[in-house]
Each structure stands twice: as C-alpha cells, then as structure tokens.
Amino acid sequence: MVCLLHPSISLAQSDAPETLQLPAEEVARLREILNRPIDPNSLNQTKEELYKLKDNAAWRLGDMVKREEVLREWAQTSNDGKWTLRDYLAGTEKRAEAYTIGKELIEVMKFPPSAARIRITLANNYIDDSNLKEAGKLLDQAEKIIKEEWRSVPLRGPNQFWMSRAEMEFHNIKALYLWRMSRWAESVQSSELAIRKGKEMVKNDALADERPRQFARNYLIFCHNILALTQMTSGQYANAEWSLREAYKLAKEFKFSDNQLIGVFNRYADLRNALGVSGEAKAYAEKSLALLAAQGYKPGSFNWVFANNKISLALTLAGQWKDALNQFELVDQEVSRLKTQSSQSRQPLLRGLVYMNNNKAADALKYLEPSFKWFEQNFGENHYQTAVAGGLYASALALSGQTQAARQRFEHAMRHITAPEVLTGDYAESAFQKAAKRFVFQTYLQLLSQTAAQSRPDAETLFELADFLNASSVQQALSDAAVRSGIDVPGLSDIIRKEQDAKGEMTSLLSYLSSQSGEGDARRMTPQVVEQMRVRLRELEAERRKYKDDIAQRFPDYFQLIQPRSPKPSDIAQLLKPDEIFVSVLPMDTETFVWGLNAQGEIHFHRWSMGDKQINVLVDRVRQTLDVAGYGTQAPAFDAAGSHQIYSGVLGPLEKMLAGKKHLILATSGPLAKLPLAVLVRNPYPAKAAPHYLIQDMAVSHVPTASGWLALKRFGKVAPSGRPLVAWGDPVFEVQQLASASAGSVASTPTPKRAVRSVLEPRTLPQGGLESGVMNFVDYAQLAPLPETRDEVMELAQIMGSLPDQDLFLGPKATRQSVLQHSSTGQLAQKQVVVFATHGLLAGDLPNLNQPALA
Fold first, then answer.
1. Is 200 in a helix, a strand, or coil?
2. Where are the alpha helices (DSSP H) in 204-301?
3. Which residue of 49, 205, 297, 668 has the fewest C-beta atoms within 10 A of its own C-beta?
C-alpha cells in the first residue's frame, strides 16, 4: 500500500546540507495576516478573501493547528472553504470526515474544472486506501468531463489556468492509478504528461489569484514526486533522483519552504531505502517528522505513522534491530493514545522480522502466524508472497524451538520461493522482501547445517538453496533480456505478449490484495470482492501455465533460458574433470557457508564463523594493498596475513579435496567477489619469507553461480561457427573524448594522472543529498580511457583473419547499443570468439555492483 500526502496539506535528513526557510520579515507578515480578526458584519466576499489569505498564511507558516481553526470557520461560509478543509482532513486522523465532505462536494460542483478536480482529488484518497474500484470510477467520470465539457468553458480570465490545473491533476492521479495496476510504462508516460500540463499551467497562472496559484505550483512539485515513484518502480533510479531534484529546484524558484516539501522528502527516503542507503533514508524521514510536528500533526496520525514506517524500514534494512524495535513501540504507543483508525501501524511482516532479530520469536509468531494464514487464504498456499510469509513464520517457529514444525513449513515455503518463475521476475521484490527472503534462507540454512555433515540430502539442499540465492539477480537480468529478444521471434512473440499481459493483471490484483493484509477493516474489501479476485487469480494462473507449456513445447531453448532450475551437486559433478574442484561460497549475516564438490560427487560442507560484513572489511583491507598501480615506492605492502585468513576460512577445511587439483572453480557473490582469489595465500609464513599464492598451485576461475557455470559448460559443447571474431575495444567514456574520437584523434587523448587500467575509486565519488544539486551516482566520464586496447583487438583480428571494417567496433562505435544490435540480428551467435576490451569490474568497483561486470 502506498500513502501519499495530498499536496494541499503541505507536501511534505536532519543532517541535510540545506534548509529552505522563509525570511523573518515574511514570517512576521504572514503571522499578522493569520492573527487578523474577521468582522462578522463584513460582506461575504470580503470574508472569503480574508479566509483565503489566512489559510495561505497558515499553510506557508506550517501552522496546521491554526489552519484547521481557520478552515472550519471558512467551511461554514462557502464550498471553497469546505473543499480546502476536506483536503486538509484527508491527511489527519479525521480521514473519514474528509470522504464525507468530498461526496457532498461532488453533488454541488458544476463548473467543469471544479467538477473534474473534486473527483480527481477523491480518487487520490481512494488509491491511498487501496480502493482502486472507486478510484477508477471517479477518474473515468473526470476524464469524461474533460473530454465533453471543456468546450463549454469560456477561454477568459483564469479559466485556462483552471483547465490546465485540472488536466495536470488528472494525469498525475491517473499515473498513480496505473502504477497501482502495475501498468508501469503507462504510469511513467501519464506522469510525464502531468508535468507538461503543469508547466503549461504555470505559464497561464498570472491571471489566477495568489492562493490558488501557490497551491497549483505546489501540486506541480507533487507531480514530480509521483513521477519519481513510477520511475523507481520501473528501476529508473537515476531518473527518479533527477525528478526529485527538479522538484526541489522548483520549490526554490517558487520561494517555498521545507513545509511544502514533506512529500518530496518522504519519496527521497523511499529512493534511498530502495538503493540500500538506509542512513540517508532515515535522515529524510526524520526531517519529514520534524516538519509534521512543527505543523501541528499529532503523533499517531495518518501522516505521522506514514513517515515513521519509512524510519522503521530504514532501521531494518540497516540491521539496527534494537532501534527498529523501539520505533515500533513508539508507534504503538501513539496510535493507541490517539485511537487512529489505520492499518498503517501494523506492518506484520516487518514487525515479525524485527522481533525475531531482537530475540522475541514468541512476539513475532503473534504477527506472523495470522499474516501467513491471511496470505494463504487470499493468494493461495503455493503463491510466492505466501511462501515468503510462510518462510518468516517458519523462521519464528525455528527460533522458538519448534524445530520439526519449522522444518515442515520451511520445506513447503522453499519449494515456492525457489520456483523457476520466481527467478524470472514474475514477482517484483521490494527492498524489504529481499531482506526478508535473505533472513528466511539464513535461518533455514542454519537449521539444515546442524545435520548437513551427517546427511547428504541436507548438504545437497543447502547447496541448491545457496546457488538460488546467488543466482536471483543474475537470472533476473538474463530473463528480462530473453523476454525482450523473444518479442521479435515469429510465433513466440504473440505468446510472450499474452503471458506478460496475464502477468501484469495478476500483479495488480496481488498488489491490491497485499495492501489489505491484516486489515480487519470491513469497509475496505467485501468478501464478495475478495472471492471474485481469487477466482480471477486462479483463471490467470491457469492461462499462464497454458502459455508456458506452449512455449516449453515449441521453443524449448528459450524456455530453459527464462526458467532454469537450480542445479543439483550431481549436475556439477558430471561436468567436472578429475583434476577440477568446484567450491560454492555463501556469506550470510553471521557466518559463511562453504561447499566443496569434486568429479566423484563427493561433497564437503563447512561453516566459517565470519559474516559478510566482517568479510567485507577484511576484503577491503586486502584490496587496498592490491590496487596500488601508480603509487610507485609509496605502495603499501601486500596484506598477506589478511589474504591467508580468507584462505583459511574458505578453503582451509578443503585441503584434502584440493590435493592434486589443477583447476579451482569458485562461485560466490558479495564481498568475496571483490577479490581476485588467485592471490589468496595458502601458508602462514615468516615476515621475511615469500608468500605461497593459490595461483602457484592451480588455475582459478571465478563464476557468479553454479547455474551460470553449467550454462557456460553446455554452451561450450555447441558446434563452433565458421566466422572467427567480433571485438569491441577502446570505448569512449567522456564527452570531450567522444568529440575528439569522432574527429579521429582517439590515440591522442590525454592520459589520466594514473595511466593504469583502473576504474573510479568508490571512496572519491561525489556525494550529496537531495538539496546539494550533486547526483549521488557515478560520473562514468571519469573512467580512464584504454587506447592500448585498440592495438590489442586489431592484432587479434589480424591473427584470426577477421575483417576490421566489419568485425571491429572501436572508439565511439564501441557502445552497448552496438552489442545489443549485433545480438538481435543473430550476428553475435555466428562468431567463434567475442572480445570486449574494456574495464573489467569486480564487485565493489562501482556502487551497487555485487557481481563481475564490464564497463
């Protein structure tokens, strides 16, 4: 469920670098207006104007207590006052009253822009409360008014302003509605259209009064907020950040204060949580809370709970479990005191995770058991979201000492959490769901590890689960690419589109149902509606099974690409040579799980007592003594002790299996993927002795997952092509370099100070919050050019007899788009050798990179 602060109630990092404040003289002027008495004997028009002035003053000052007093007086005299009161109440604990007033206003508003706008406004509240059916009806009515009644409005005075404002609001809330329906591409388009309409409105707002002009401009900022939401859902995080920065920039241009930016700060908190920057997320949510408190919103109110939930999530994602527990206790206390009628404070799955990490498994069960049963009843026992809820429930059982019951529940949950369709993006995962899934895996792995040394089935199950956890993000990208490539395949494209349409409808129904979890609020969803949704979900699931069966029969290679199964140890063993060993490593929060597997099918399993955060510190320490090119005599000595510590934890217990082996294949992600494992030191040695590196004894191959290695081995069995080579090299990263490359002067591009093949140092990346104007993303233009790679690929082409004009893509031609185009036309598959001569990236080289990649 998403809840949005309505812009007319103040769109709302304690350590943010900048705060927008009103000048002291402006504060004094507004305070004088707010305190000015209204003569009861004055003309109604005079009263109306003064109420508008007083409301605008209270809004700009952020004095919501005084504002409600003014609005209740004003609502007695006019519909404008009643409307404004309605909008304010929608964000307080008096939301039910706001609905009542809104329905009354629909009956009396006849001016077409006003008639459309009141329906749009009420639709927004229904979307917040997950009543998409009523929201859709109101939006349809508003669209009909815009299409059929606009022509009757005279284009004089402020009428053009009001029509543009109504269209801006319509497209904005339509975007939000489409977003809730999982029609994300359409949602982004509608949101962008809302902003275009808003900019047209600003051009025409000179004829409008000051108060509606201020509120309309504030709504334009709200539109940027919704655009950021739709972009985040589509994975366009950089675009979302730009949208929020544009909103902040507009606020400065419009001379607004932070009081009008609560919604923007909350959305930025969402963005930082999504990117894993939980510290910044918490800071911005706290800033929103401080502003709400200053405006007079009571602790325990709808908006207060909404902002606090972002803090709870940030603390959870940061692993600050005690603080997260204290946060929930605070919310419970204030909601109980205020008797708030909202489900926002329950958060059963989030609470359960927090309670379990505070050794309160019994308390977690009180939330997780009914929540799991709700998902089971509404989604079905085999659905992915039911499986995650069931996994959390199983974790609470395990931590409560109910081992047998936990094991049964885990087995059922894991069958559906690890189903092939989960890897293919059928179910979009939030940051919390990823954290919850990781906790479920960790708890189950710990349970199985107690018997894995004596039980081969348990050891094999552990191996498969570990590979699934490592494979999720990799397979998601592969599946997305496969779907895109299949769109143009005759016969396959129609099936894909039908299957994707069914998937989208399922997602919207599931999103609606999810928002009702644990509600107990009869007005939200009747049993009849629930049953209709269940029936439709079953129909859609049957349709999708039919489509997938059709794809599997007619296009088996494509189906295996999008829905692979997790490999078993025996699958790996069959493809290993006698002198090879396969090692899978899975770092978790408190410990690391390691499996060794040889060609005879023998499995060795052990646990290393270091968790991923500890390993990350150790790996970074070793990496700092490796990334020394360009330091000369000032280079630090290699951290052989740290390297040996890693070897001892990961490979030390596998010494017997390593004996006589010539090739080590190691599958891992996360912190260990940041280190070239060939430099691991096998023996502790005296200070003056030379270290003995792993690479001196055997070749070392690093792969992200076991399933990825299997795919590579099977691909290697494909008959070779008769066409020799295609290569990309000497890529252009910087704009000025691109200009010189286009002029044919790539070779003369100035070399950076450290002329080595190194990417950006993450520690030197520009940092900045929402207000700083600095994007918190990598400036890829700072990547060092690689002119020597041009010579390398040209020499390779000569050796292999390739045609440079056709087979080499150099300088400005070495682009991602050229690779995709080469693949889509089938040319890439015809080559024996494919070369990418560019920066090879390890996990950690760039932000959010946890697998090897190419720049």
1. helix
2. 210-233, 237-253, 262-274, 278-295
3. 49
- Assess whether 688 and 729 both reside in one domain: no
Same domain (yes/no): 783, 748 = yes
Please check whether residues 685 and 729 belong to one and the same domain.
no
Helix and strand numbers (H, E) in the chain are 34, 10
Question: Quick one: DSSP state of residue 766?
Answer: -
Closest CA to 220 of 192, 242, 241, 189: 192
State the Cα–Cα distance between residues 340 and 3, nearest whole angstrom. Answer: 15
Residues 6 or more apart whose Cβ sits within 8 Å of residue 301: 91, 92, 93, 338, 340
698 touches 779 (CB < 8 A): no
**Tokens 């493809």 appear where?**
575
Return the pLDDT at 93: 78
The pLDDT of residue 696: 92
Based on the fold, state whether residues 580 and 520 are members of the same structural domain: no
Q: Residue 207: its pLDDT value, please?
A: 84
Identify whether residues 753 and 839 lie together within a single domain. Answer: yes
SS3 assignment, position 516 = coil
The pLDDT of residue 704 is 78
Quote the crossing angle between the two packed helices 456-486 and 431-452, to the nearest 10°: 150
User: From CA 494, how far away is CA 573, in angstroms rounded?
Assistant: 39
Same domain, yes or no: 678 and 762: no
Number of domains composing the chain? 4
* Pure H helices in 339-430: 348-356, 361-379, 384-399, 403-417, 420-423
Global confidence as pTM: 0.65
CA 661 remoteness from chain centre: 42
Q: What is the 3-state secondary structure (H, E, C) of 639-664?
A: CHHHHHHHHHHHCHHHHHHHCCCCEE
Query: How many Cα atoms within 13 Å fall on the side-chain side of residue 568?
Result: 8
Question: What separation in angstroms does the CA of 480 have from each of 56, 68, 463, 477, 506?
Answer: 49, 50, 25, 5, 18
Q: How far apart are CA 394 and CA 462, in angstroms?
A: 17
Nearest Cα to Cα of residue 584 among 670, 693, 687, 479: 670
Alpha carbon distance, N-terminus to C-terminus of the chain: 37
Q: What is the DSSP letter of 566?
A: P
42 DSSP assignment: S
Residue 284 lies in a domain: yes
Alpha-carbon distance of 822 to 674, in angstroms, equals 30
DSSP symbol at 756: S
Cβ 436 vs Cβ 430: under 8 Å: no
Pairing type for strands 808-810 and 840-841 reads unpaired
Residue reference for tokens 């005759």: 490
Using CA atoms, how far apart are residues 61 and 177, in angstroms rounded to an integer?
A: 32
Are 794 and 808 in contact, with CB atoms under 8 Å apart? yes
> Which residues are CB-neighbours of 491 under 8 A, at least 6 positions away?
554, 555
Tokens of 187: 């949602």
Q: 696 lies in which domain range?
A: 569-710
Rounded Cα–Cα distance for residues 34 and 741 (Å): 63
Residue length of the chain = 855
Report the pLDDT value the prediction gives residue 764, as an integer from 0 to 100.
Answer: 36
Cα 776 from Cα 271, distance rounded (Å): 11
**Residue 777, token pair as written in the block:** 């993303």
The two structure tokens encoding residue 409: 């529940």
Mean pLDDT by 10 residues, the chain (855 residues): 33 36 83 87 84 85 86 89 89 86 93 95 87 91 94 89 94 90 81 93 87 89 92 79 89 86 89 84 91 83 87 92 95 85 80 96 95 84 86 96 93 82 51 86 89 82 81 51 50 65 62 50 50 68 71 65 71 92 90 91 90 90 78 79 92 93 88 86 75 91 81 59 76 59 42 42 47 52 71 80 82 80 70 79 54 64
Q: Where are the alpha helices (DSSP H) in 595-701?
A: 612-624, 640-650, 655-658
